[in-house]
Amino acid sequence: MREHLRGRRHPQILAYLLLTLSSFRFYLFRKLTESCIFSLQIEMAQIVRQSKFRHVFCKPVKHESCMSDIRVTEITWDSLFCDVNPKFIAFINRGAGGPFMVVPVNKIGRIDKDYPFVDAHKAPCLEVAWSPFNDNVIASCSEDTTCKVWVIPDRGLSRNLTEPAVELTGHQKRVNTIAWHPVANNVLLTAGGENVMFMWNVGTGEALLEISGHPDQIWSINFNYDGSQFVTTCKDKKIRILDSHTGEVLHEGTGHEGVKPQRAIFVKDGLVLTTGFTKRSERLYSLRAPENLSNPIVEEELDTSNGVLFPFYDEDSGLVYLVGKGDCAIRYYEVNNEAPFVHYINTYTTNEPQRAIGFQSKRGMSSEENEINRIYKLTTKGVVDILQFFVPRKSDLFQHDLYPDTRSTIPALTAEEFMEGMIQSLINQKLTKIRSGKNAAPNRQPVNAAAAAAAAKPKVQVAKKANILSTLAPTAADVVQSQSYAERPPSSQQPSPRPSSSPRPRPVVDEDMGIVPMREAPPSRPASSRASRTEIPPKEEKGPDPMKPKQAVTLKSRAARDEPGSGSQTPGQRRAAAELERIKRDQSRTADEDTLAPPPQPTRASASPRGSVSSASDHVPQNMDELLEDLMKMKAVLRQHERRIRMLEEEIADRNMSNAYSF
């Protein structure tokens, strides 16, 4: 027995076990693979961030549609040398003193060497900035310790401009940087080389506030959303947030470690985004909270370069663009409340380094093409590259989610109101140590006014009609009484709701016109006048029978189904019915003597064909009933004549046909 199992059964059992083991291994492998794929999908779902700006891409405008031959200044100063608004673009160009050029933003082609410019300063111009509330007003600062405000004509410069609208003199050294107040009109902040800042009322040219306390050179200044605070970066590697009304330092912290210039701007929810250098000249950015400026929330190193990184922030979309002078790349990120709070999107790279940079406002965007931002980049060859950033969308309609209301050109505060808040804040600070200056949120306007107006209209317009039911009188309470079937009396015993003196008129059936409107019978009518009319007997009103179904099925017999008019006829029956109909039509065309006879002449006492008594020709109906009877008589006569004429025409046609084919 053992030899039998060992010789024959053992190899089969072993093969079966091996097959089972291999199938089990395959099953385990498949399950492990599915679990790995599922876990990988979960991780990928966590990695992929949901955002409408995740696929923003840059599309430059062709050089044939750009400006060229711009001769930018050659001074070594960490500034943008450019600023742009929806009407004009300004460049600090080469020349004696400190000139800058103002060109319409839609100009195309080469710029002539003798193109008009603004002869602004006696020393090199360091920075220019357009007013946020007037596209024709621009401010400039220079090494000649002055800051000037200029008014550009609507059509641009036709000759050199030498006389400023306002000249602000108060600094002892060069004016490093300037910034307009984002909410108050005609309020300008300047920072000088003597480490002092002035808040100016540009309309009157007087200094509203002098802010001192910085131990070293001020590199950058930037206001927050409502202009109540501004942030500064200094050469002492400190970042300070100051109050706009009092100049008091609210928050202070240590910035980047590098000795090269660093810059700071306000972003979403009052956070501060800074760019700078490390000790090894590595460029980096960081996101900081105002309460703890020394410890950044997020910090990331980018590369090693000498160019200063300038951050541009779009407060409507939350996008940040990092542009370095002398670089060929522009990096852009999205700042939101999700960790890691600063999300990298993409990098746009060209072959030409940038010499000057201008960031366009939302009022200058092309919302029909889903353009989200636009950057003007002046290369070292003097060509102005227009870089448009788009959000890919399949629809050509206006995208309301991409374009919330942006800042308006109408200021929320005047310079006088801002000054009153400043004075009140200073008084409160000296008396009660409370900072309560007057602040206001900026006014906002739609990016595309036409699309916003169209969206405000209702999509479905409903035509209002008169309320017909409103004219009906309400039902009296004593008319309707609820009764059960058992309590309700029989229909024959129910009293009539109308009085017996005026019985209800009955419908009258007319042989030619069908049912005519109901009318009451006159008291004195001859019996012969209604000989051709049949009265419909009134139907006896019966109450609903609970034992009788509401719908009953009627079954047809075989004889009824086999009738000629039924739907289930054989082809032979249908042919026979058609032949019978043809014979009836031929018989109806045959004229009889009564039909061909002329109609009898009516006399005063003669009877009409309809059985009524006809009146004389001079008879005038006395009431509506007699008029209707006369009309019915005339109708009967006309029908007889029409039938007689039709038969005569057919007879003439038959004779013509027989005469035509008789030969």
Automatic annotation (TrEMBL):
Region (Disordered): 480-627
Bias kind Basic and acidic residues: ranges: 532-548, 576-592
Signal peptide residue numbers: none
Top-level taxonomic group: Eukaryota
Protein name per Swiss-Prot or TrEMBL: Coronin
Presence of keyword Transmembrane helix: yes
Family classification: Belongs to the WD repeat coronin family.
Pfam families: DUF1899 (PF08953), WD40 (PF00400), WD40_4 (PF16300)
Parts of the chain that traverse the membrane: 12-29
SMART domains xrefs: DUF1899 (SM01166), DUF1900 (SM01167), WD40 (SM00320)
Keywords: Membrane, Repeat, Transmembrane, Transmembrane helix, WD repeat
Pro residues: bias regions: 496-506
Species of the source: Caenorhabditis remanei
Domain DUF1899 residue range list: 46-109
One record GO biological process: actin filament organization
GO molecular function per UniProt: actin filament binding
Biased composition range(s): Low complexity: 605-617
WD repeats by residue range: 118-150, 168-210, 211-252
